[in-house]
Write a structure and sequence with these properties.
Distance between the termini: 47 Å
Strand content: under 5%
Structural class: mainly alpha
Radius of gyration: 21 Å
Number of helices: 14
Helix content: 55-70%
CATH superfamily of the largest domain: Intergrase catalytic core
Number of domains: 2
Order of helices and strands: HHHHHHHHEEEHHHHHH
CATH class of the largest domain: Mainly Alpha
CATH architecture of the largest domain: Orthogonal Bundle
CATH topology of the largest domain: hpI Integrase, Chain A
Largest sheet: 3 strands, antiparallel
Length: about 280
C-alpha cells in the first residue's frame, strides 16, 4: 500500500486536512486491509459494506467511530481510486441527538475545589467558563486573555478558525491568582517545559481526571469533550438580549459550522423556544 498511501497523503494535504484527520483516515483504510488481509484497492463494494456492518453489528462501535471510518473510506475510494459512486454505497450513520449533561452550581464547586493544584483549578475553570475544547485551552497564551474587553481569544480552534469567547470576572480573578503563583512566561498552561504548551490534550485529561473522579462521576465526560460550558454562554446571552448578535458571533457557535450544533448545548442550559435548534437555523446574522 506504499504508493497508495503516498497518493492518499498527497490528496489529503491538497484538501487541507489536519494531521489528526489524516492519521484517522489512514487508519480506517489500514484496518479495512487488515480485516480482509488484502489490498484495499482490490476490494469491491460488497466487501466494504460487509466491513462496515462488522463495525456496527459485531464490534458495536460508536456512531462517531463508524462515521470516521466512512469518511476515510470515501476519500480513499472516491478521490484516490476515482470511483464515482462511493457516496451511494458507503452511507454515513445518523447519530442520535442527545442533550449534554450540565453540572449545577454545587457540582461545579466540588469539581473546582477538588483540583489539587492552582494550575489544574484554573485550567478547569477556563475550559468550563469559556466553553473551550481541550485542544483549545492547552494552546492559550497570556496575550489571549483580554481583560479590557473581557474576552478570550481562541486561535485556530475547530475548523482552524479564530473566535472570541466570554471572560467572566470570576475566571479573570482566578487566572490572576494563578499567574501570581506560577508566572507562566508565554503559554497560559505550559507543559513540562515552560517554554512550550502541553504536548497533547491527554496531559490536561490526566492532570484534571483526579479532580473529576473525586467530585462526581457525572463530571468525567467534561474531561474529554466539554459541552456544558456552553451553558455559561447561554446565561450570558439571556442576561443581555440586546447584545445577542455580537455575543452569538463570539461565543454561540463555539467553532461549529452549523448553528444547530451549538444550539443543542445551549438549549440544555437555558430551555425555551428562542434557543431551539430550529430558531438558530432560521436566523441569518
Amino acid at each position: 500500500m506504499g504508493s497508495l498511501r503516498r497518493k492518499m497523503l498527497d490528496i489529503m494535504n491538497l484538501c487541507g486536512l489536519s494531521d489528526s484527520t489524516q492519521a484517522m483516515y489512514l487508519r480506517s483504510v489500514e484496518k479495512l486491509a487488515r480485516h480482509y488481509n488484502w489490498r484495499p484497492d482490490e476490494l469491491g463494494r460488497a466487501e466494504v459494506q460487509r466491513y462496515l456492518l462488522h463495525l456496527i453489528e459485531d464490534r458495536a462501535v460508536a456512531h462517531s467511530t463508524s462515521n470516521c471510518a466512512v469518511a476515510g473510506l470515501r476519500l480513499f475510494y472516491q478521490k484516490v481510486l476515482g470511483r464515482t459512486d462511493v457516496h451511494l454505497w458507503i452511507p454515513c450513520r445518523r447519530a442520535p441527538q442527545k442533550l449534554p449533561d450540565v453540572l449545577n452550581n454545587e457540582e461545579l464547586a466540588r469539581l473546582f475545589g477538588a483540583a489539587a493544584m492552582p494550575k489544574h483549578r484554573a485550567l478547569l475553570m477556563t475550559a468550563y467558563s469559556g466553553g473551550l475544547r481541550v485542544s483549545e485551552v492547552v494552546h492559550l497564551q497570556l496575550s489571549d486573555i483580554d481583560s479590557e474587553r473581557m474576552l478570550i481569544h481562541v486561535r485556530q480552534g475547530k475548523g482552524k478558525k479564530d473566535r472570541y469567547t466570554v471572560l467572566s470576572q470570576r475566571l479573570l480573578k482566578e487566572l490572576r491568582e494563578y499567574w501570581r503563583l506560577e508566572r507562566p512566561p508565554v503559554w497560559l498552561f505550559p507543559g513540562v517545559s515552560r517554554a512550550r504548551p502541553m504536548v497533547t490534550p491527554a496531559q490536561m485529561t490526566g492532570a484534571t481526571r483526579p479532580a473529576a473522579a473525586s467530585s462526581s462521576p457525572m463530571t468525567m465526560p467534561v474531561m474529554t469533550k466539554i459541552h456544558a460550558p456552553l451553558g455559561t454562554n447561554a446565561k450570558t446571552l439571556s442576561a443581555s438580549a440586546r447584545n445577542w448578535p455580537v455575543t452569538v458571533r463570539r461565543t454561540g457557535t463555539a467553532g461549529h459550522s452549523r448553528m444547530g450544533t451549538s444550539a443543542t448545548a445551549l438549549s440544555s442550559a437555558t430551555p425555551g423556544p428562542c434557543l431551539s435548534s430550529a430558531w438558530w437555523t432560521r436566523r441569518r446574522w
